[in-house]
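Appendix C reproduces, verbatim, an entry submitted by the partner laboratory led by Prof. M.T., so that reviewers can inspect both the input and the predicted structure.
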Amino acid sequence: MTRIPYVIDNRQHTLAEVLNQVLASHEKLAMDVATAYFNIRGYALVRDTIKGSRGVRMLLGAEPRTRARTWG
């Protein structure tokens, strides 16, 4: 069983390490990701492990637009 750290701080536990561990232990499953950002250098850190998965779907959010609020 894969143990996921309570906090992924990118110092003691990096997101790449955790994702690689989870993907490796569930290699025949697909992975769905919802995120606001995509970084090609970050993808490169998990690319080889993702190749063993059944598939990956990503939902990328749009940058929020700001506008003045009117309080009534």
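Residues 15-25 form the longest helix (11 residues). Additional entries are available on request from the coordinating office.
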